[in-house]
Design a protein that fits this description.
six-stranded antiparallel β-sheet; 6 strands; Thiol Ester Dehydrase, Chain A
């Protein structure tokens, strides 16, 4: 059962991500890539996978303080295998907040295919921002 993100994120809505877990520094999301999210090899485009990982990690960071927003400071991604899914299947993203300071979050995220195989992993650093602030860069 999908739960709401707590904020409106048009790009996430456009991609169709659904939030399944959002608590205690952990997140789980689902992403059912459509044909327009694929590359010429008919697998999920790396940019779509990276966007998914970014949101997975940002959501894990926000889960300890949902009233705050986060902006991505740094992200490193490693691809292990193609993120291929059949129609009706979804990729699963799991995020974990590794460490938090007052203003920064250090996270990791993983994307698994429908068979539970690890497709990609990432680490990310996020800055907490008040929703009242208007940062020069977009919030997740």
């Amino acid at each position: 059962m999908s739960i709401p993100f707590g904020v409106k994120i048009p790009f996430v809505e456009h991609l169709g991500f659904s939030l399944e877990r959002f608590d205690n520094g952990q997140s789980e999301l689902r992403f059912a890539p459509r044909p327009e999210h694929c590359n010429s090899f008919d697998v999920t485009h790396g940019g779509a996978v990276m966007t998914f990982l970014d949101v997975v990690m940002a959501t894990a960071a926000r889960s300890v303080d949902p009233d705050m927003g986060v902006v991505t400071i740094e992200m490193k991604t490693t691809f292990m295998r193609p993120a291929k899914v059949s129609p009706g299947q979804a990729l699963v993203g799991q995020g974990l907040l590794q460490h938090r300071t007052r203003s920064m979050a250090f996270t990791e995220g993983s994307v698994f295919d429908a068979q539970g195989q690890l497709c990609a992993r990432a680490t990310g650093t996020f800055k907490y921002v008040s929703r009242r602030e208007s940062p020069a860069i977009s919030t997740d």
